[in-house]
Amino acid sequence: MKTTNNISELREQINTWRKQGLKIAFVPTMGNLHAGHISLVTHAHQYADKIVASIFVNPMQFGANEDIDKYPRTMAADQEKLQAAGTNLLFTPTPDIIYPKGLDKQTYVDVPNVSAGYCGESRPGHFRGVSTIVCKLFNIVQPDVACFGLKDYQQVQVIQTMVEDLSMPINIIPVATVREASGLALSSRNGYLTTAEKKIAPALHRHLQWLAQEIQTNNDFIGLAKQAADFINKAGMRTDYIHICHARTLNPANKDDKELVILAAAHCGKARLIDNLQVQL
Predict the structure, then answer these.
(1) What residues act catalytically?
(2) Which residues contact 226 (CB under 8 A, 6 or more apart)?
(3) CA distance 46 to 175
(4) The pTM is what?
């Protein structure tokens, strides 16, 4: 696996592969990799000949009350995991490479509608930062396909919408959430959980499963979501939000919708955990 932080060097390698008629898959990450990230690389092998990954802790998607300096950085371990998974090229830029003019003078990409509400409401500016960095990385790498984990369901919808609206010739591949045996979705933020909190945290997914079962026969979506939030709070967490939505538009679900997604976020100690469950009625 080759590692570079140089855009010209990255493009030179990708152009060489292009001339050989090879397809390129891209897996963008912020590092501190776990099995969920590696599943994206494994999945990407189904769609392309060469795998490009990136590690970049993006300052644009962190809010004023979110300490980017505390985000865990584990580059050496991440490189080992990516190489073992068959990654061919790793891009590791620094903020001055990605944002040479500084954040205050950087052009933004804003995806309306699907980025509003839920995590977009809880973390103002977050999805503008996500869509901007993903757009920029797409322009640098110019992949044929890109893989994103469905744990960040709203993020996947934002990126898919951006690609459609801006006519980018990239196939976005959503990849299923990887979970611990307890049902807890793998996340870099799980590292913030204490031993006691690790026993509490699976309640988030457990009550999403309960909610998914209930809405098969009861279309009081608002009432059921409030009930699930109460269950999560009583388990020792603090619900940020829980909503039942149309799976594609993310608008609040109505009784005629058949393809739904339950979106949820909750605080467990210092960790803010997100999860979701797709439901077909």
Answers:
(1) 37
(2) none
(3) 12
(4) 0.95
